[in-house]
Structure formats: C-alpha cells, structure tokens
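Long-time lurker. I teach an intro course on protein structure, and each term I like to show students one example going from raw sequence to a predicted 3D structure in token notation. This year I'd like something fresh instead of my usual example. Would anyone be willing to generate the tokens for the chain below so I can use it in lecture? Attribution to the forum is fine with me.
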Amino acid sequence: QVLLVESGGGLVQAGGSLRLSCAASRRSFSSYVMGWFRQTPGKEREFVAAISWSGGNTYYTDSVKGRFAISRDNAKNTLYLQMNSLKPEDTAVYSCAAAPIVYLTTNLKEYYYWGQGTQVTVSS
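-- Reply from a regular --
Happy to contribute to a lecture. Here you go:
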C-alpha cells in the first residue's frame, strides 16, 4: 500500500501561483505513474496531469496546459504540481494518485492509491 499526503493548498488571487506537494510513504514510489486530479462540489473528479516513472513524460488536460507543471523527485518520494496564472475556475480540492502501470493515463479507475486532498481557492 502507498500512503499519499498532499500539502501546499490555500487561498490565492487570480493570476497568482501555488505549488502542491504529495509525499509518498514507500520507496517504490518511483515505480508508479503519478497523477493529479481535482474535484469541485457536485462535479465528478477531473484529471489534471500525469507523469511517468522517470518524470520524462508528462500529460495535461487542455485547460491547464502552459500554466501547470507536474514533476517528481523520486529520491524524496515526492510529487509536485506547480500552478501558475491561476484562475477562479481552478478552485477545487486537488488530490494526488498513484497507478501501478507503465503508461500515462487519465482514467481515475487505474489509479489505485489516493491522497486525502488539499483545497485550492482562487479569488477573482
């Protein structure tokens, strides 16, 4: 089992930046594809970004391309999401997730382990 704990959420004005972190409990962190998802009340959880084992491949949902950057530090068992040029519509609970697969995926059903989430609120 992999325990994931997010941090770094908060309140920021539109146009501002935040960096989310996701600390993993296991040294096998480097063998998981990692992803970030977000969810707002009344809506389904939405894919944001994913990164390969090595960090060499990434994939983003269209709405965050050019503004968000996913990265990982396997030596520290930590996943990151740098969020720039934030918009009010980015407001959500952001969760990290781990998938024991070898390809990038946007399908949340393929992610076995989930963090508890961190709130990001962007004011206009």
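Some talking points for your students: The first strand starts at residue 4 and ends at 7. The chain is about 0% helix and 50% strand.
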